[in-house]
């Protein structure tokens, strides 16, 4: 009543007045009035986090306000929490990957036999890493000696074109890349993997590590951390600057010019580099990696190179693992080591709001290099034209606005989908199954090259969908109790997409259902009707009906809708 009387009498209520009234209504649990105050303040340009700061609420009172006005997902970071989240984000990006527990993992106490298998596997990996590191160091020394005498020559495995790139990273880092990433990929596919794919995998990982190394050595990481904390402090003030985030970031960067530049423009290595550097490293791996599982296979090559006929008849190089390796990895490594997934840092959401885009190659993540435009690898004309583009400030600002939207996991839906997934999946519900369902009669046909190719294609597609869902559910479970953010970039048409592919609102209905906005707001006058319309659209029964008919149909089915929401796994 008091607030309405003040408004009716023309009294000018400032932000502090609104905050005081919010405290009064909170203590009385008058949530309708509290919602009106929050809506009024937000319409006047005061975000909810600023309202809570001005009201000087205790932690308990703030949580009660958020719950009462229907935005319990909001979380106001303290300076210490922001600093800790920034530290974790930078650590993950410099490490290059995020280790997320698999939702399909079953943790049991290992038997003595499994412990022995575990030790054998880890011992092999350590031995391969040591042998490959030693071989690369010898090659480096040999090359330095050869160059002094005959510049046109190289070693058995590497020529003069490869060595400048091999010297960019220590031999230990190259060995880690090959053993930790490439070996696991090879042992995950019994039929082997194409040589070109592995070469690109090696060099993409090496380029990322080199860029991170350069940023650390040039002080970019330290300056970015300092600049970001100042940037967020400015935005958290009761009266933040009325500037685009891009402009504010650039102004603060200019003020810290004495700390060096944030720009580290290192072109991505072309496929020609990937082909001859990657091929040399794989040749070295094949030469040095030996089996030492037992006396009968000691000294045998763990990996070998072969040629496979492709669909077009061309012969393509493949790298395969020894059959005895697959038996070992099937018994233990694939079962136990897959309890955790290593996801590239640039494919995961962020723990804090992204760095504002200010240039075509500067924005989103703090350390990991991401381009503002998606393009096929080695299409350098796209990058060249992008660099020559005129004023892109409007594009930067649009992507920055999208990146400021926080998200959280709908844990109820996540647990439901996880339960269905671990039961074997259900194609009708959009949850992939593990084993493919072949067309009727296909398995009973006479064996032929065409039938085998069709069955292999279906199996690979089914496994790919299953793994994609496993990644998505595991990553969602990792972030289940956290707020997170998604940096955005665009394709050549200007369509904006979240950079992280696994957790995204631009995906299937199942993927979208697991996401919620980090900051909730009350529905407007027609908000509930639009939710009903969307629900009927998903059902598909009234696709040709008017909007009014769809709302009426949702009202008719409301009892069944609520029953499905309350008991999704039961049939009534």
UniProtKB/TrEMBL annotation:
Alphabetic keyword roster: DNA-directed RNA polymerase, Nucleotidyltransferase, Transcription, Transferase
Protein name, entry field: DNA-directed RNA polymerase
Record-linked SUPFAM superfamilies: DNA/RNA polymerases
Annotated signal sequence range: none
Residue intervals of the DNA-directed RNA polymerase N-terminal domain: 87-404
UniProt catalytic activity: RNA(n) + a ribonucleoside 5'-triphosphate = RNA(n+1) + diphosphate
EC numbers for this chain: 2.7.7.6
GO terms, molecular function: DNA-directed RNA polymerase activity; mitochondrial promoter sequence-specific DNA binding
CC per GO annotation: mitochondrial DNA-directed RNA polymerase complex
């Amino acid at each position: 009543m008091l607030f309405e009387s003040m408004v009716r009498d023309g009294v000018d209520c400032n932000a502090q007045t609104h905050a005081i009234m919010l405290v009064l209504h909170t203590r009385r649990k008058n949530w309708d009035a509290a919602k009106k105050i929050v809506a009024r303040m937000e319409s006047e340009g005061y975000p909810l986090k600023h309202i809570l700061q001005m009201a000087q609420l205790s932690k308990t009172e703030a949580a009660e306000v958020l719950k009462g006005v229907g935005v319990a997902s909001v979380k106001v970071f303290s300076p210490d929490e922001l600093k800790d989240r920034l530290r974790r984000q930078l650590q993950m990006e410099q490490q290059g990957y995020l280790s997320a527990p698999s939702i399909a993992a079953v943790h049991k106490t290992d038997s003595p036999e499994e412990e022995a298998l575990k030790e054998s596997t880890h011992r092999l990996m350590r031995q391969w890493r040591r042998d490959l590191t030693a071989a690369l160091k010898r090659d480096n020394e040999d090359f330095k000696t050869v160059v002094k005498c005959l510049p046109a020559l190289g070693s058995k495995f590497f020529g003069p074109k490869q060595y400048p790139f091999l010297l960019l990273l220590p031999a230990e880092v190259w060995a880690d890349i090959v053993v930790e990433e490439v070996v696991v990929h090879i042992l995950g596919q019994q039929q082997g993997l194409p040589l070109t794919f592995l070469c690109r995998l090696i060099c993409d990982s090496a380029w990322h590590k080199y860029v991170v190394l350069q940023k650390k050595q040039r002080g970019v990481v330290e300056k970015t951390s300092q600049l970001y904390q100042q940037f967020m402090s400015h935005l958290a003030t009761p009266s933040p600057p009325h500037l685009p985030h891009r402009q504010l970031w650039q102004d603060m960067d200019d003020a810290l010019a004495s700390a060096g530049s944030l720009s580290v423009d290192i072109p991505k290595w072309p496929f020609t580099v990937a082909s001859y550097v990657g091929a040399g490293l794989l040749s070295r791996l094949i030469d040095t990696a030996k089996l030492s599982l037992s006396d009968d296979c000691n000294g045998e090559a763990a990996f070998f190179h072969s040629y496979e006929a492709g669909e077009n008849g061309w012969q393509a190089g493949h790298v395969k693992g020894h059959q005895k390796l697959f038996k070992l990895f099937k018994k233990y490594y694939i079962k136990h080591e897959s309890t955790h997934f290593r996801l590239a840092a640039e494919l995961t959401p962020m723990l804090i709001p992204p760095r504002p885009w200010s240039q075509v190659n500067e924005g989103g993540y703090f350390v990991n290099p991401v381009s503002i435009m998606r393009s096929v690898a080695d299409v350098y004309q796209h990058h060249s034209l992008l660099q020559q583009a005129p004023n892109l400030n409007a594009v930067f600002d649009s992507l920055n606005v999208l990146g400021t939207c926080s998200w959280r996991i709908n844990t109820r839906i996540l647990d439901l989908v996880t339960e269905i997934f671990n039961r074997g999946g259900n194609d009708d519900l959009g949850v992939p199954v593990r084993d493919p369902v072949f067309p009727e009669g296909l398995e009973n046909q006479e064996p032929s090259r065409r039938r085998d190719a069709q069955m292999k294609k279906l199996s690979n597609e089914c496994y790919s969908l299953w793994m994609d869902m496993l990644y998505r559910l595991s990553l969602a479970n990792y972030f289940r109790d956290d707020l997170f953010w998604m940096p955005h970039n665009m394709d050549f048409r200007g369509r904006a997409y979240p950079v992280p592919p696994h957790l995204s609102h631009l995906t299937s209905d199942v993927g979208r259902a697991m996401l919620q906005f980090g900051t909730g707001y009350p529905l407007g006058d027609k908000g509930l009707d639009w939710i009903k319309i969307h629900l009927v659209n998903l059902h598909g029964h009234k696709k040709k009906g008017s909007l009014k008919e769809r709302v009426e149909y949702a009202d008719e089915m409301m009892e069944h809708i609520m029953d499905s929401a309350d008991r999704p796994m039961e049939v009534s």
